[in-house]
Design a protein that fits this description.
23% helix; 234 residues; 15 strands
Length: 234
C-alpha cells in the first residue's frame, strides 16, 4: 500500500503528484520522467529556444552536427515510418511510495464518458468490464441508453447470480500528463452493491494493450509518443 497520509510532511507539496509529502523540486519520479523526455528528444524545442537566447556556439560545425540526428529523424517520420516497439517493464523505480509486501488491489481513476470515475478496480480475473448501476445513474448519461443483454448471468461474490441490466459502450481516457490514450470500451451494467464504481476486466486490458503490476500498484499502456502509466490510488 502507499505511504499513509499521516506520515507525509504536510509542509511540502508536489505539483506533479498533487499530494503532500515532498516538494516538486525534490520529486524523484518527476526527475526521472524529465530525464526520459530529454533522452527521447521531447524537450528539443526548449533546448533550441535556450540556445537561441545564448547565441551561436564558438564552433558552428558542432551545432550542425548536433541537429543532424534530429533532422534525419524528422525526414524518416515524413515517410510514415512505423512507431517503434514500446517495451512495458517494471523496475524498482516503480515501487515509489508503495509499502511492501501488500495484497492491495490496483485502483485507478480514469475518465469514463465525461466523468472522472474514482475507485475503478483493475481485475484481470474478470472476463467482463463491469459498470455498477449506482455509478451508471450518477454519470449524467443523458441520451445514452442501455442495450439489451441476453447473456448468461454473472457469477458474483458470495455465490449470487446477478443478471445484467444491459450493455453500454463509452469512451475511456487514460491520462498521464501529456501522454493520453482514449478508446471505446463495452461495459455490462449490473445492479449489485460493491465498494467499487467500475471493474476493468480482461477486455479492457486487451483493448488498451495495457500491462498491470499488483506489486508495483501501477498500470502501463502504450501511447503515440511513449509508454504512459497510472499509479494506483489508496
Amino acid at each position: 500500500m502507499k505511504v499513509p497520509n499521516h506520515k507525509k510532511n504536510p509542509d511540502k507539496y508536489c505539483d506533479y503528484h498533487r499530494d503532500k509529502g515532498h516538494n516538486t523540486d525534490e520529486c524523484y519520479h518527476l526527475k526521472k520522467l524529465t530525464e526520459r523526455m530529454i533522452k527521447d528528444g521531447e524537450l528539443n524545442q526548449f533546448v533550441r529556444d535556450l540556445r537561441d537566447r545564448l547565441g551561436p556556439k564558438e564552433n558552428p560545425e558542432e551545432e550542425i552536427e548536433a541537429d543532424e540526428p534530429e533532422r534525419r529523424d524528422r525526414i524518416r517520420g515524413e515517410f510514415g515510418q512505423a512507431k517503434p516497439h514500446m517495451p512495458m517493464t517494471f523496475s524498482t523505480e516503480d515501487y515509489e511510495d508503495v509499502i511492501r509486501p501488500h495484497e492491495d488491489p490496483l485502483i485507478i481513476n480514469p475518465i469514463i464518458g465525461q466523468n472522472k470515475i474514482w475507485k475503478v478496480m483493475v481485475d484481470t480475473g474478470s472476463s467482463a468490464n463491469i459498470l455498477f448501476h449506482k455509478t451508471y445513474c450518477k454519470m449524467n448519461l443523458a441520451g445514452e441508453q442501455l442495450e439489451p443483454c441476453n447473456e448468461a448471468p454473472l457469477y458474483a461474490i458470495g455465490g449470487h447470480h446477478i443478471q445484467f441490466e444491459g450493455m453500454i459502450t463509452l469512451p475511456v481516457l487514460l491520462d498521464k500528463l501529456s501522454y493520453t490514450v482514449e478508446k471505446l470500451v463495452k461495459f455490462y451494467v449490473v445492479r449489485i452493491e460493491s465498494p467499487y464504481n467500475v471493474i476493468f476486466g480482461r477486455p479492457f486490458i486487451s483493448t488498451f494493450e495495457a500491462v498491470e503490476s499488483i506489486p508495483h500498484l501501477k498500470l502501463k499502456f502504450p501511447t503515440e509518443k511513449r509508454v504512459g502509466e497510472m499509479r494506483g490510488e489508496s
